[in-house]
Amino acid sequence: MKRRDFLAGLGGLSTLALTGQTVQAQEAWPSKNISMVVPFPAGGQADIAARPVATYMQKVLGKAVIIDNRSGAGGSLGNSTVARAAPDGHTLLMTLSSLAVLPESDRIYGRPVAYEVDQLQPIARVLADPTLFAVPASAPWKTIQEFVADAKARPGAISYGSSGPFGTLHVSMEMFALSAGLKMLHVPYRGAAPAVSDLIGGQIQALASAPGTLKQHVDAGTLRVLANFGAERLAAFPDLPTFKELGYSDVEFYIWAGLFAPKGMPAPVVTKLRDTVRDAMKDPEVTKVFEAAGNMPAYQDSEDFAKFVAKDSERLVATAKKIGKV
User: Fold this and answer.
1) 210-225 mean pLDDT
2) Angle at 314 (CA atoms; ends 144, 170), nearest 5 degrees
3) Fewest CB atoms within 10 Å of the CB: 246, 250, 259, 302?
4) Confidence of residue 249 (pLDDT cuts 50, 70, 90)
5) By the 8 A CB rule, do 261 and 30 touch?
6) Do the bridges between strand 132-136 and strand 206-209 make them parallel or antiparallel, or are there none, so unpaired?
7) Average pLDDT, integer, range 104-122
8) Domain check: are 220 and 155 in the same one?
9) How far is CA 136 from CA 142, 202, 203, in A?
10) At what angle do helices 302-323 and 168-180 cross, to 10 degrees?
């Protein structure tokens, strides 16, 4: 064999070896523990969505799936952390519908944009619950009509909590306030859980949050819910009217939770991750956790989820622009 042909053969073998190594590396995912970033404190909607899915993934994949509650800036800190992470499938994000609103809020305030939505790849939607309007059980209001009448009589006197400016809880409450012509005092928190705690304690007077963060407190008699931001009544709260039923036709808000990854992951990793989450959402142990918390599973695979995010985000960004600087 001529030297030239021999060297060419070696080159071909090297290429095959490198290709084989790449395929093997991709097929080996996960090769280390997985971090699932939740951009809010423990106990909120994103955290409720993340934990049973992470438990299932850990069992199936054979690597630890560690929940990283990285709260701050209404969720922007955790979202941007994952947007900048290596696209190797070892850093994931379980986030909420504020995902698209937060970059818009940076633009509204003239700040550097922390991340863009297109830096993240939708993997699957897990939950899609409407927010519920809650007040302390000791509050004088038994209906939305009573609340609106009092808020109009005392502009700026009634305070409400949120997970931060332009987060899910803030946008939903401002959507209602704009529709009803109310002026309330906004008190931002680092997430839903501390806001719920202060609502129970009476430090704030109202809150819009997910059923899963409110149901145990409603059942315990410490909170009262007055309205549902969804288009239809919920099975877990069958007697709770929707805002649309109450005459607020433009008030509709869903606090969905979904799994994302940094854009640019290898196709085999994406496929395995999608398959794993799909199977997790079929697992009775996972769905039982959600249903016990008052959250009905609302699974969508990546393609349908991407379309859903685009449509929902368009509506929420328009609301954010109406809110303006706060």
Assistant:
1) 94
2) 40
3) 250
4) very high
5) no
6) antiparallel
7) 95
8) yes
9) 10, 7, 10
10) 50
Q: Whose structure tokens read 């064999």?
A: 1
Please check whether residue 248 lies inside any domain of the structure.
no
Give the range of the structural domain holding residue 290, as residue numbers without chain letter. Answer: 32-128+255-323
Residues of the chain with pLDDT > 90, as a percent, come to: 77
Peptide bond into 262 cis (omega under 30): no
| Token pair recorded at residue 180 | 């009803």
Residue 217, in any domain of the structure:
yes
Q: Give the dihedral sign, CA 232/236/241/243.
A: negative
Note the helical H segments in 28-70. 45-61
Which residues, in sequence order, are CB contacts of 140 under 8 Å at separation 6+?
A: 146, 150
112-to-35, 108, 116, 316, 319 alpha-carbon distances in Å: 26, 10, 11, 20, 21
Looking at the domain assignment, is residue 20 inside a domain?
no
Query: What number of other Cβ atoms are within 10 A of residue 231's Cβ?
Result: 12
User: 264 or 41: which carries more pLDDT confidence?
Assistant: 264
